[in-house]
UniProtKB/TrEMBL annotation:
Database matches in InterPro entries: LeuE-type
Chain coiled-coil ranges: none
Protein name according to UniProt: Threonine/homoserine/homoserine lactone efflux protein
KW Flavoprotein (keyword) present: no
Topology of the protein relative to the lipid bilayer: Multi-pass membrane protein
GO (cellular component) term, any one: plasma membrane
Domain of life per record: Bacteria
Length: 202
């Protein structure tokens, strides 16, 4: 079993670095207090875990039932990565903020908001369904591979929040500069496009 860890982790890194609703939720909560930031991050991670479990079970069952489905999913995955890249590049430098949340009122409320941000975001599930097949070995055990890759994805996001929450002041200041945000997002969008191209040509 040969899992393509290199390309998987690289793609995952780019997706993690692209600010989304979960990033806005965690940083906005952390800006009002570290405790709120950690609770929001915990909620987001739990939501991610739910999607990871669903993707692992569903994808594994599909591949076992229809081995050719892995190729189809890979093709769809390439299309999705290209779409993500185009959207990021088109919106690079935008000052609009998605996923605005109300100010924290209780620990439970903050945790639940973080949980719902990921659970109700179909892009999170699509991320798993597009990234996992790209790294899986068709000759290997799909359940074992999907489980390992999903666990790595959840752990990577959790590690990211361990960096974001204590550094929220610096990160917010860095991305608040339009030029920096524009360059940052263009780099992320370009990286996704390059990865999609490399998968298509492989």
């Amino acid at each position: 079993m040969h899992i393509a860890w290199g390309s998987f982790l690289l793609a995952l890194l780019v997706i993690i670095l692209v600010p989304g609703p979960d990033f806005v939720m965690v940083t906005r909560s952390a800006a009002t207090g570290a405790r709120w930031g950690w609770l929001a991050a915990a909620g987001v991670t739990c939501g991610l875990l739910i999607h990871a479990t669903a993707a692992t079970v569903g994808l594994s069952a599909l591949v076992i039932a229809f081995p050719a489905a892995l190729f189809v999913i890979k093709v769809l995955g390439i299309g999705y990565l290209v779409l993500m890249s185009v959207r990021i590049l088109r919106r690079a430098g935008s000052t609009a903020v998605a996923g605005e949340e109300a100010a924290p009122t209780s620990g439970r409320a903050v945790f639940l908001r973080g949980l719902l941000v990921d659970v109700l975001n179909p892009k999170v599930l699509l991320t798993f369904l597009t990234l996992l097949p790209q790294a899986m070995d068709p000759a290997g055990d799909p359940m074992r591979q999907a489980l390992l890759l999903s666990a790595a994805a959840v752990a990577s996001f959790a590690a990211w929040w361990l960096i974001v929450v204590p550094s929220v002041g610096w990160l917010s200041a860095f991305l608040s500069v339009p030029r920096r945000k524009r360059v940052f997002e263009r780099c992320c969008g370009g990286a996704l496009l390059v990865m999609a191209s490399s998968i298509a040509l492989a």
